[in-house]
Amino acid sequence: MPDAFPDRDCPRCPRLVVFREESRVNWPDWHNAPVDSFGSLDAAVLIVGLAPGLRGANRTSRPFTGDYAGQLLYPTLLKFGLATGDYAEDPNDGLSLVNCRVTNAVRCVPPQNKPIGAEINACRDYLIAEIDSMANLRVILALGTVSHASILRSAGLRQKDWKFGHGAFHELPNGLILANSYHCSRYNTNTGRLTEAMFHDVFAGIVNHVRA
Ligand code: URA
Predict the structure, then answer these.
(1) Among 77, 92, 91, 84, CA closest to 46
(2) Is 204 helix (H, G, I), strand (E, B) or coil?
(3) Contact 62, 91 (CB under 8 A)
(4) Model confidence over 172-188: pLDDT tens digits?
(5) Residue pair 35/58 in contact by the 8 Å Cβ criterion
(6) 104, 50 Cβ separation under 8 angstroms
(7) How many angstroms separate the alpha carbon of residue 159 from the centre of ligand 1?
(8) H-helix or E-strand containing 102?
(9) CA distances for 111 relative to 51, 58, 61, 208, angstroms
């Protein structure tokens, strides 16, 4: 099992290494490396996104920071008491997470925001190490089906036994709750697949579980 966080020059995914090297040439001031999780390992809630956005986390170094998805995620965390401060799309904005941590199923930015299966599999060790390091973890929120599937596999469970459904709260055999939401991506919100109210309902459920 590796450390909970990949090396800056993690070699596991050849396609992502090439993309990272190109990004380092094109945008030398950007982060252009695996993106570490945000929030304390002591948290009860772990939110698992897909992968860093090119001009979001890959630029700023903080998950969901500076991209469209963060404009829904972070105000929602503030609304439900899972964050304090202000979200200003900048890792130095002073935002702190409260009892909550944010990570991604794949730590490096993929071309077109789409990691391939081998990359999701190669990065799973880091997700497993992350989950294992969270002693107070109660609820994992999967943003989208890719993250849902990777979390299940990290727990040795099969997708056919734990079907993804927006708003579902699965009680896993290891005692954790696996919550599901459609990903808060621009595509899902622009098409109306995910509304702000639907997203808020999922967080209301999470907060209830954590307080219970
Ligand atoms: N930014 C992230 O860090 N993760 C996502 O899944 C989407 C945008």
Answers:
(1) 77
(2) helix
(3) yes
(4) 999 999 999 999 999 99
(5) yes
(6) yes
(7) 22
(8) strand 100-104
(9) 10, 12, 17, 37
Ligand 1 binding pocket mutation candidate from 35, 36, 50, 186 (most atoms within 8 A of CB): 50
The model's pLDDT over 38-66, given as tens digits with 9 standing for 90+, comes to: 999 999 999 999 999 999 999 999 999 99
Is the C-beta atom of 66 inside 6 A of ligand 1?
A: no
Ligand 1 and 47: CB distance under 6 A: no
Cα dihedral 97, 39, 142, 9, rounded to 10, equals 140
What string of DSSP letters covers 26-42? Answer: H-TTS--SPPPPEE-TT
pTM strictly above 0.70: yes
Does 50 sit in the ligand 1 pocket, CB within 6 Å? yes
Residues in a beta bridge with 96: 84
Of all residues in the chain, the percent with pLDDT exceeding 90 is 97
Q: What are 81-94's pLDDT values in tens digits?
A: 999 999 999 999 99
Measured in Å, residue 46 CA sits from the centre of ligand 1 at 14
Q: Which CATH class is domain 14-211?
A: alpha beta
Residue 47 DSSP one-character state: E
